[in-house]
Amino acid sequence: MNMSKSVLISGGTGLVGSELVKLLLKNGHEVRLLSRSKGKGETPPVFQWDYKKEYIEEGAFDGVDTLVHLAGAGVADKRWTKDRKEEILKSRTQTSNLLYEKLKNTDHNVRTLVAASAVGYYGMDTGDTNLREKSPAGHDFLAEVVKAWEDSTSRFTELGIRVVQIRIGVVLSNEGGALPKLLAPPVAAPLASGKQFMSWIHITDLARVLCKSVEEESMIGSYNGVAPEPLTNRQFTKRAAKAFGKLYLPIPVPKFVLNLFLGEMAQVVTGGNKVSAYKISKTGFDFKYAKLQNALEDLAKNK
């Protein structure tokens, strides 16, 4: 068992954060949360922060040796207005900058930052190119956001802090993310061409990747947080429909319909990436859900 860590998590009440908190506590680590709302007597303890006011509650960093930074406005939660796009960017970069400035100007024991990132780094539609961590960044809106996000967390190395960035793919969970949305309509159908790749990861495995990043000091830099079986949107949708007992219609939802309903945000579902899990696998990480079939069966069983 690794030595116990004292971990401060931003975004710890979200979909991924909640799963990670459970795993860290199970592994014997001490956990505290940064949250916009302050409650009383919670477990784990909550410290208030507000990046717009550049505020972090006194004592948040006391005894902390590890930061896990997951905060950021949901990319697919609302239509991309100008204000929403600004919120998507600033909720990632300005929160990172606030944490950086506080650490720079405070006596602290933080030695590790594990930061969320996204496969959107590579661009919204990269076809069937096999993407590794050294592949170039894209140039569309999300790629620019993720690049700025990574830049804002990379500079923690200037403070002598080990930085790990997990480029997260499509997270599979019953509690939120892509899967419930995909299966919400009466019938499941491919989106746009259906040929775009989906690089997915079961939420259990994502929490395990993040936990490993906290515990293993040999991990440094960026890692793709995806399972080793990327599939096309058509393949994914067909298997998901079968696992959850939904009617599958092989006729794709046309791109123009998606554009009509989602606006610019439609690129998130009409595009895709084929992302490699080679680097994280090389660390000795063993996926519980390496195959989509197993991941879907688990989620369908526990729905």
Give a description of the structure.
There is one protein chain. Helix 1 (15-26) packs across helix 5 (203-215) and helix 2 runs parallel beside helix 3 (141-154). The chain has a domain at 6-170 and 200-226 and 274-288: Rossmann fold, CATH 3.40.50.720. The strands form 5 sheets. It has an 8-stranded mixed β-sheet with strand order 4-3-2-1-5-6-8-13, sandwiched between helices. Strands 7-16 form a two-stranded parallel ribbon. It is built from 10 helices and 16 strands. It has 303 residues and is of the alpha/beta class.
Précis, in short:
The protein is 35% helix and 19% strand.
In the CATH scheme, the class of the domain at 6-170 and 200-226 and 274-288 would be: Alpha Beta
Query: CATH H level of the domain at 6-170 and 200-226 and 274-288: which superfamily?
Result: NAD(P)-binding Rossmann-like Domain
Low-pLDDT ranges = none
Query: What order do the helices and strands follow?
Result: EHEEEEHEEHEEHEEEHEEHEHHEHH
The total count of strands amounts to: 16
Give the overall shape, derived from the CA principal axes: globular
Given the helix and strand composition, which structural class is it? alpha/beta
The count of helical stretches stands at: 10
Cα distance, first to last residue?
32 Å
In CATH, the topology of the domain at 6-170 and 200-226 and 274-288 is named: Rossmann fold
**What's the story with the biggest beta sheet?**
8 strands, mixed
CATH architecture of the domain at 6-170 and 200-226 and 274-288: 3-Layer(aba) Sandwich
Record the strand order, biggest sheet.
4-3-2-1-5-6-8-13
Helix fraction? 25-40%
User: Oligomer, anyone?
Assistant: single chain
DSSP strand (E) fraction?
A: 15-25%
Q: Measured on Cα atoms, how large is the radius of gyration?
A: 19 Å
Average pLDDT confidence is 95
